[in-house]
Amino acid sequence: MMLLRVLACLLSSFSFFEEAAGGGEKRFRDRHQRIGHFKKGDIIVVHAGAPQWFYNNADEDLVVVVLQDNVNNANQLDQNPRG
Hints:
Residues 1-22 form the signal peptide. This protein is mainly β.
């Protein structure tokens, strides 16, 4: 689990490619799985490895503080944290 502390407003969503049925053709499909508006001071808990995209539509800078457990078994690549 990651704990995100939000210090400005933001909007989270993501989009992806999807294969067409039968043809193997890939096409862009814009799907917003989760869209949420957050305000200053909100705390968001995200599962480790979960895709998150943040869009700052506010007139001020967005500051996000991430607390992550790098010695957890979810960090399977190696013992070097990535930034």
